[in-house]
Amino acid sequence: MEQSADVVREVESQCRERGLRLTPTRRRVLEMVIAADGPVKAYDLLDQLKSEQPKAAPPTIYRALDFLLANHFIHRLESLNAFVSCFHPSHMHQGQFLICERCQTVIEIHEPSLQKGLAAIAERNQFKPSRQVLEIYGTCSSCRRQ
Ligand SMILES: [Zn+2]
Ligand SMILES: [Zn+2]
Predict the structure, then answer these.
(1) In sequence order, what are the beta bridge partners of 106?
(2) Same domain, 78 and 105
(3) Between β-strands 82-85 and 74-77, what pairing exists: parallel, antiparallel or unpaired?
(4) What is the CATH number of the domain that holds 129?
(5) What is the pLDDT of residue 117?
(6) Which residues contact 141 (CB under 8 A, 6 or more apart)?
(7) Is residue 90 part of a domain?
(8) pLDDT above 70 covers what percent of the chain?
(9) What pLDDT does residue 1 have?
(10) Which ligand has an atom closest to residue 7 CA?
(11) I need a labelling partner for 41 at 20 to 30 A (CA). Which of 56, 86, 111, 135 fits?
(12) CA quadruple 33, 39, 45, 48: dihedral positive or negative?
């Protein structure tokens, strides 16, 4: 994917702006999530990292993923227990996704009005959300054509 170098560059500049430390491992994990080009599980990332850093252990991956998640540089798909890269890492946002059940293609949607609506609902219920992932399952356009 051509956008991937841009995403890494954007994350780098975000880290500089926000005073965050993008360590080589965090950066490498980010690159691996982007390169997966779809949902990827933590243990697949660990296997990949181990081939480059034999000493890598589960906490290495989880710490890197936590950093990337906490700063909204990647998203976690709750139902698949997998991670996807984010194509607008420059502003904090909650994940909203269309997920194809046939080919597992994940489309990140970006709909601020949806976000506002959900925030308003939570507030009406005096509920303070800690995280929120909207996952819509179905069939993508290319699978529907088949
Ligand atoms: Zn995103
Ligand atoms: Zn599909």
Answers:
(1) 99
(2) no
(3) antiparallel
(4) 3.30.1490.190
(5) 93
(6) none
(7) no
(8) 98
(9) 45
(10) 1
(11) 111
(12) negative
> 91-101, pLDDT tens digit by residue?
778 889 999 99
pLDDT of residue 50: 95
Number of domains making up the chain: 2
CA of 34 to the centre of ligand 2 (A): 19
What does the block give as tokens for 115? 């976000």
Q: Is the pLDDT of residue 2 over 70?
A: no
Partners of 82 in the beta sheet?
77
Query: Which residues sit with Cβ closer than 5 angstroms to ligand 2, an ion?
Result: 100, 102-103, 105, 140, 143
What is the pLDDT confidence band of residue 66, given thresholds at 50, 70 and 90?
very high
pTM, 2 dp: 0.86
**How many Å lie between the centroid of ligand 1 and the Cα of residue 55?**
31
Return the C-alpha torsion angle 6, 87, 102, 41, nearest 10.
80
Q: Residue 95's beta-bridge partner residues?
A: 133
Helix/strand/coil (H/E/C) assignment for every residue in 46-104: HHHHHHHCCCCCHHHHHHHHHHHHHCCCEEEECCCCEEEECCCCCCCCCEEEEEECCCC
